[in-house]
Design a protein that fits this description.
Globin-like, Elongation Factor Tu (Ef-tu), domain 3, about 15% strand, binds protoporphyrin IX containing FE, five-stranded parallel sheet, 3 domains, Rossmann fold
Length: about 475
């Protein structure tokens, strides 16, 4: 395959738009017997591909909005926003220095590969004009591939920040294959619900190169382009393969009927759904949910119970001001309504290979996955100590306290403490300092992003190592705020 040639930024993208011309998704062949095809070997095996130069967009104009151009201003979620994070964006990569090591502390930084150096150089070049790059990227994508526009939400503001942002972060951390692979596989599986297909990846890749070469013109050259093409090929192949593998065993989405809707407070509802087919998940995980009232707007909600024998799924949803999806779920959804669910994701789960205690801090509706973790321990018949700190801004917001106290009565190994914190739950984690020690405990944090950030600091401060602090990624909580 010829190395990609560099074209000057002003003549528009250098990345062509010939689907198939630029990047041909590799069909995943089943591993030959005995040979376990690891992600590492797959990443190493991937090669960069060529491109063409047709179809320049007239100008870097604004996004062609499908049906009205109302922007969605991003807001920080209100207290008790359900902990949700689709597969955490490679935040672990961003938080290299603070990785909430759900499993292990980050490996010491080896010297970056030549590709990573070139990619980071481009990132430094485009960061000051990131918004322009994003707008141009989507304008290019939808002008050249109008057939892709219907896959995206009507108003794109929030979206703009996530796809391209995740792509750039992933490319920047291309050397960190193990963490990246995990994240991208989750993302690849999750993209099936959007209707994303392997043949769509070349289009996105070419528009990525088009936007980068346009706004990093001063430093853009053949080597830089080749580095981005290699990185993009690696990233998309992992996503494509994960989706292909997932296709063999589960649907791209589930339809789920509301079977009960219980308003616990004026703005918190406990909603129970019956999926149209078995929905396997682990306690502590979350799903993405789309309502019939806001098509193609997906939000993440944590499962509020461990898997049930009747297959029903329950969620705690808090309606927040101007929150489209959460408000619809709390104030509009009724038994008989049908929503769509994406695949389960997240790794804030119980490690059943140890008998460490569980120290759980749940703020607002963040208590939902914590309750699921407690049920999971009970179902495994383990007698490991579980300490729950359940926080809310006011007494009347402790909407699930009766359930937790009933569980405490049935399980002697369970302790439940409530904390009313008028400071937006930021001080909730401090309550943990008065108890302990927590040497042999795994810690779980679930609640609004601010609480999780202060929680990580508190737990680190009382000596709990990274690899025993678990939570869903903060950025995703923000991005998923509705
Ligand atoms: C190549 C690497 C890609 C990366 C790293 C990436 C990353 C992301 C991320 C992080 C999100 C946010 C929500 C989520 O976590 O699911 C997202 C959403 C989405 N992506 Fe991708 N994506 C990629 C490729 C594609 C392709 C090829 C398509 C097909 C055209 C696509 C279509 C979408 C759509 C429709 C959404 C949902 C929009 C929304 O709900 O706001 N993505 N992507």
């Amino acid at each position: 395959m010829d190395a990609p040639t560099t074209t000057s930024a002003d003549s528009g993208t250098s990345g062509g738009d010939g689907v198939g011309g630029w990047f041909t998704p590799r069909k995943k062949s089943p591993p030959t017997d005995g040979e376990q095809e690891t992600e590492g070997s797959r990443l190493a095996a991937l090669r960069p591909l060529g491109r063409s130069t047709e179809g320049e967009p007239a100008s870097g104009g604004d996004l062609p909005a499908a049906g009205g151009s109302a922007g969605i201003e991003e807001r920080l979620p209100d207290e008790g926003e359900p902990a949700s994070a689709e597969a955490p964006a490679p935040q672990a990569l961003l938080q290299q220095e603070r990785v909430p090591a759900q499993r292990s502390a980050p490996a010491p930084q080896a010297s970056a590969s030549p590709d990573a150096v070139l990619i980071r150089h481009t990132m430094a070049e485009i960061t000051p004009v990131a918004d322009k790059v994003t707008s141009y990227f989507y304008a290019l994508l939808f002008v050249r591939h109008p057939e892709l526009r219907p896959l995206f939400p009507p108003a794109m503001d929030t979206q703009r920040d996530r796809l391209l942002k995740a792509l750039l972060i992933a490319a920047e951390h291309i050397d960190n294959a193990p963490v990246l692979a995990d994240y991208l596989q989750n993302l690849g599986r999750g993209h099936r619900k959007y209707g994303t297909r392997p043949e769509h990846y070349p289009a996105v890749g070419e528009c990525l190169i088009g936007a980068l070469s346009r706004f990093a013109g001063a430093i853009w050259d053949e080597r830089t382009e080749a580095a981005w093409v290699r990185a993009y090929t690696t990233i998309s192949q992992v996503m494509i393969d994960a989706a292909a593998e997932d296709e063999l065993r589960s649907p791209p989405w589930w339809m789920a009927e509301v079977v009960s809707h219980e308003l616990r407070t004026p703005d918190v509802a406990v909603i129970t759904l019956r999926p149209d087919q078995p929905y396997p998940f682990l306690a502590g995980q979350y799903t993405s949910l789309e309502t019939p009232w806001w098509p193609r707007i997906w939000r993440h909600y944590s499962f509020a119970s461990a898997p049930r024998s009747d297959g029903l799924l329950s969620f705690h949803v808090k309606a927040i001001p101007a929150g489209w999806v959460s408000s619809a779920l709390v104030h509009r959804a009724r038994p008989g309504d049908v929503v769509r669910l994406g695949p389960p994701a997240g790794s804030m789960t119980v490690d059943h290979t140890t008998d460490n205690g569980l120290l759980c801090v749940g703020g607002g509706t963040g208590i939902a996955p914590i309750k699921a973790l407690v049920e999971d321990v009970a179902e495994h018949g383990e007698r490991r100590p579980v300490e729950v700190f359940y926080g809310a801004r006011a007494d009347h917001d402790l909407y699930d306290i009766d359930t937790l106290l009933r569980m405490k009565q049935s399980h002697s190994w369970l302790e439940v403490r409530t904390v009313v914190d008028r400071h937006g739950l930021l001080q909730l984690p401090d309550a943990v300092r008065e108890f302990g020690p927590w040497n042999e405990y795994d810690a779980y944090l679930s609640g609004p992003p601010g609480m999780i950030r202060s929680g990580v600091d508190t737990l680190r401060g009382i000596g709990i190592p990274w690899n025993r602090i678990r939570h869903d990624s903060v950025e995703e909580l923000v991005a998923a705020a509705d």
